[in-house]
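The following block was generated as part of the benchmark described in Methods. Ligand: iron/sulfur cluster.
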Amino acid sequence: MPDNTPAERAGGAVARTTGASASPPEKRASWLPGPAQGFGVTFATMFKKVTTEEYPEVPKQTKPRYHGRHVLNRHPDGLEKCVGCELCAWACPADAIYVEGGDNTEDARFSPGERYGAVYQINYLRCIFCGLCIEACPTRSLTMSNDFELADDNRQDLIFTKEQLMAPLLPGMEAPPHPMRLGSDEKDYYLRDPRPGSPAEPVIEESA
Ligand code: SF4
Ligand code: SF4
């Protein structure tokens, strides 16, 4: 059987559409006039439980796994977990992440690997909070917090820089650059199991 012409296909579609909208909506059975029915809905709603959020006076508690503002995490000695690999930027469907990697040197070490994230930016005008970037990160450097208060009145301030995204220094952490404190080499560092004599973690001598 030959195919329908484009005009016939279009005509068929119009006919089906017209036929579907031809049946009138069913009337609600009520002895009240229409305006009274409408006010009835209003009055019934007045006595229902109020669900208004009192934000910002009462901050909203998010679910624990809510996808909020990103955080760039640190190792326990303060070095950065980001190794500047750009996998997060490649995974981002909204092209919201910009990364430039830099080389660590023995004089200026920011991460335990060969490289670190020298420039890191997230554009929150583009981000759709899908979380694909944190799934792509091989070092668990990038995670998402529960912070959702990201509104602003200009575009520039919604491009967050590395300094804004870095996790704060906790007690016992040291601001980079500095040498690896948790291992004499990368294997030591990641296994947290320093060999005897390594300047990693202090070896506690057992008293006899
Ligand atoms: S959460 Fe999604 S959209 Fe936002 S930066 Fe990550 S990958 Fe891109
Ligand atoms: S945040 Fe993770 S994925 Fe992104 S550049 Fe740094 S190490 Fe790579």
